[in-house]
Amino acid sequence: MTFFNRKSNLIKELREQLSAAEDTNLTLQNEVEKEREDKTTMEKALQEALQQANNNCRSIQEEMDQRTARLQEELKQSREEGQSKLDEKEKVIQELHESLHHVKEEKHTVLQSIKDMIRDMSLDHAQQVLKLKQDKEEASNATKIIQEELEQQHQLRKIQSEVWESSKNEMEVKMQQMKEEMARLREDLLQTQTNLEEQKRETQTTLDQAAISQMQLKEEKETSKGLREQIETLRAAFAKSEQEKMEEKESRRKLQDSLTEKEKVVLSLEAAVTKYDTDRKKMQLDFESVKKAVMNFQQSAEEEMKHHVQQVSELKREKEEACNATKILQKELKQQEQLRKSQSKDWELSKKEMEETILQVKEEMAMLEKNLIQKQTNLEEQKKETQTTLDRAEMIETQLKKEKETSKGLQEQTQTLRAAFAKSEQEKMEEKESRRKLQEDLAKKEEVVLSLEAAVAKFETDRKKMQLDFESVKEAIKNVQQSAEEEMKHHAQQVLTLKRDKEEACNATKILQKELDTQEQLRKSQSEDWESSKKEMEKKMLQMKEEMARLREDLLQTQTNLEEQKQEMQNTQAEIIHTQLKEEKENAADFKSS
């Protein structure tokens, strides 16, 4: 509006100056007409004076025969002098007319240029008004669309605010519940850890007592030492398959059969049967411990796999979010490019007020979009924090379950070890009693010893077979370990690939952000170009105003000069009339005196 006001004021001022110039022209024309009338009046007065003089001369011509020639000569001289003065005055008037004509031509040229400029400016103004009307209609339509979008975003913002408040309240309730549950879980975990420490101490005491009792066994237990060492190594194994469990059951069944046969054979030697039965029971306990260790490893491996799967899913989700963010930035970049093009067109066709209005609307849209994106970001961050908290709670619950299961297993193992220790002590006492009886009945039971040796040989055969079975189990565990390592390598490779994709997406996002910054700088430079062109236009308008001021001063100076010339001409005419009247009076006085 400021530009149009300045332009309309300038046009109004030019029109006023044109009206003033036309008034000045009319004034000059009136003055010239008045000068012509004065000249005609003066000529008529001179003619009347001459006619009166002639009449006087004719009336007294008869009486003035001698003086007529002289008077005629003097009158002729005076006429010649007057004519010369009149010629000079006519020359001055002619020069004045020529200068006035020159001034009129210059004024006409200036007025014609002003009229042409005004006509061109009117045409430009009409075209600009037409374009501005079109731009105004387009801007009003765009404003309506923007207002509709603003209304929709306002409704969406209200809905999101309500959803946010409800979800916030729900999350606060859930967080409170989770805090309480976490406190309870911490207490349970501390209690469980205390119980585990106590159970570990009791287990260590029991193991020490078992080690002391094992040191008191006979040298015959050295044959099963390798088997116990293999079982101890199997306790730290990684996994156990269903086929291995079936093989273990089959081996235990065979061992049970062999032990049953051995018990049938060595009924006469209770001490030897007690020893082999004790070995069998310890072997079963070792199998149970190995089974539990394998199950624990399998469970830990499954949890590790779940953790890797969760990590992979999180990385995939982050990759999708980065891709979505990249797509959003690409859309924003396209919108910025379209906005820059539309702003360039608007800057070329529209004026400052429309640009300011559109810029304000765009700033409001950007502010609303920024607020919406900020709220969505806050909502996503809140969701991520909530999800992280839930995942942490699930992890704590899983760890708690694992600790409970571990505690339960330790309790069972402690009870088993305690029962085994008590039974070992009882068997040790029975073994001493059996050895005492065996020493008493040694001579009587040599045949039974032979049969017992055969049974022991069979048991040794079964033990070697079981050892072979354990070797196959060990090989299977190694295969499972290798497959698990390969799977972990595959997962690690997948994680690295997803991280690389995430970094590429982040780099693409940074590139798009740089392009957005470049678009913003380009828009700022265009705004600066528009400001510079605006300043140049204002400078040109100021120069035009100065030129019009100089033109007004020239017109005023010309008017002043014309007034001075008019005053001089009037003074000259007054002197001529005064001189003629003076001469006539002198002639009349001379005539009267004569």
Biggest sheet details: none
> Number of helix segments?
7
The helix/strand order is HHHHHHH
Give the fraction of residues assigned to helices.
over 70%
* Extended strand count: 0
Keywords: Coiled coil
Biased composition (Polar residues): 561-574
Biased composition (Basic and acidic residues): 580-594
Region (Disordered): 517-539, 561-594
Structural overview:
- Residues 517-539, 561-594 are annotated as: Disordered.
- Residues 4-251, 298-501 form a coiled coil.
- This protein is mainly alpha-helical.
- The protein has a domain at 2-145 and 538-593.
- Helix content is 94%, strand content 0%.
- The chain has helices spanning 2-59, 65-215, 225-235, 242-265, 270-349, 352-440, 446-593.
- The chain is rod-shaped.
- The model has no long low-confidence stretch (mean pLDDT 60).
Blueprint (SSEs and pairs):
Blueprint: H1 2-59, H2 65-215, H3 225-235, H4 242-265, H5 270-349, H6 352-440, H7 446-593
Helix pairs in contact: 1-2, 1-7, 2-6, 2-7, 3-5, 4-5, 4-7, 5-6, 5-7
Keywords: Coiled coil
Biased composition (Polar residues): 561-574
Region (Disordered): 517-539, 561-594
Summary, kept brief:
The protein has 594 residues and is mainly α. Helix content is 94%, strand content 0%. The chain is rod-shaped.
Features:
7 helices; rod-shaped; coiled coil; 594 residues; mainly alpha; single chain
